[in-house]
Amino acid sequence: GTDITLWGLELGLLSMARGEVARFWFSPEYAYGRRGCPPHIPPDTTVLFHVELLDFIDSEECDMFFELRGAQQDTLPLEKVLKVAATEREFGNYFFHKQNFRVAKHRYKRALSILDRSCSSEAEQSQVHPAKVPLLLNLSLTYLKLECPKRALQYGEKALEMDQGNVKALFRCGQACLCLKEYSKSRDFLTRAQKIQPFNRDINNELKKLA
Fold first, then answer.
1. Mean pLDDT throughout 138-156?
2. Domain PPIase FKBP-type spans what residues (predicted)?
């Protein structure tokens, strides 16, 4: 609710399900009030909203998590921490698809920082690492979009430390090295990726650039 200025619209959205279409009549006190919204909406106007709720991300648990102090966050069950990190990644994906790469980067990094808590057992570590790898790959791609290949390479290599045979990580590292004009390293990463997925068009196209 922090990004919605109309009380009526906020109440209406809370009543809707994903994919639902609805119409809402809002009296002035639930819409633009006595001031209206010049020059389009006069004062004290009842307004009609036609709304289609395509999708939403529930940020309630994230908001509650970040209101806690660090020591309090560390006491939460791992299941809840993983859920908060996954929600932050969803926000990152949303902004990435909107091509707002800087905000996406911030969201991915925040999700990664949540997962940097110390694991109390190997069982916890086995759950945290698979959640970290997609975030590292997201950050690698985002830095490529931001034309920061050195950072893209760093995050790609971190992903490979956790999953040596990850094709996406090998591909991102190959792309980053190509941007850095480190052609030998680029060929090495891409060739390793090609051995795992020999018919991957993107990998083969990048290798053609090195021919």
1. 98
2. 1-57
Going from the C-alpha of 16 to that of each of 3, 50, 51, 151, the distances in angstroms are 17, 12, 10, 41
pLDDT, one tens digit per residue, over 64-103 is 787 778 777 777 888 888 999 999 999 999 999 999 999 9
C-alpha to C-alpha distance for 209 and 181, rounded to whole angstroms: 11
Neighbours of 33 (CB within 10 A): 15
Alpha helices for 43-100 (secondary structure H): 60-67, 70-74, 78-97
For Cα atoms 46, 51, 53, give the angle at the middle one, nearest 5 degrees. 150
- How many C-beta neighbours within 10 Å does residue 173 have? 28
Instruction: Confirm whether 7-52 and 60-209 share one CATH topology.
Output: no
For residues 33 and 7, the answer to whether their CB atoms sit within 8 Å is no
The CATH classification of domain 7-52, taken from the options 3.20.20.80, 3.10.50.40, 3.40.50.2000, 3.40.50.800: 3.10.50.40
